[in-house]
Every structure is written in C-alpha cells, then in structure tokens.
Write a structure and sequence with these properties.
This protein is an alpha+beta fold. The chain folds into two domains: about 35 residues, no CATH class; about 45 residues, no CATH class. Helix content is about 15%, strand content about 35%. It has two helices and four strands; from the N terminus they run H-H-E-E-E-E. A four-stranded antiparallel β-sheet has the order 1-2-3-4, with no helix packed on it.
Length: about 80
C-alpha cells in the first residue's frame, strides 16, 4: 500500500485537506484492499458536535485500531473530518 501525503488546500484550523482529489487519486487502486481489511465501525462517543467511531485493520501481522471522526456540515449532514 502507498503512503499518501495530503494535497490541496488546508482549512484554517490545520485540519484535513478540503480537496480530497489528490488523496483519492493516490489511494484509488488500493481502496478495495483497504476496505476488505477494515471491520465494522464501532461507536466510541458523541458529544453532539463530534462523533467518534473506531475500526480495526489487519496489516503486517498485527491488528491496528483506527479512529474515524464525524462532524455535521452547515447543512446538518455528518461528514468524516479525520481518520
């Protein structure tokens, strides 16, 4: 699997890139393999502003926990803001 550096403009808070095109292009060929290794999202917490979930991925002989964070956009739709 490739290592991907964020591309495109960043938000003023130093958060994730607002343009995921570069990352999507870099990861595109690997996404099926990544998705196949992920398990279901498990709820961790939700304070009404930020929702946190966790998933695990088997890689290189170990199991790794990855957290996924969601926030509502200005239309009230939950979006992934960090992984």
């Amino acid at each position: 699997m490739r290592t991907v550096s964020p591309t495109g403009p960043r938000t003023g808070t130093g958060g994730p890139s607002t343009d995921a095109t570069g990352a999507r292009n870099d990861l595109g060929p690997d996404l099926p393999a990544v998705a196949a290794g992920l398990r279901d999202l498990v709820f961790v917490s939700n304070d009404g502003v930020l929702a946190e979930y966790a998933t695990t991925l088997d890689r290189d002989g170990g199991t790794f926990v990855h957290f996924v964070y969601f926030m509502r956009d200005h239309d009230g739709v939950w979006k992934i803001v960090a992984m």
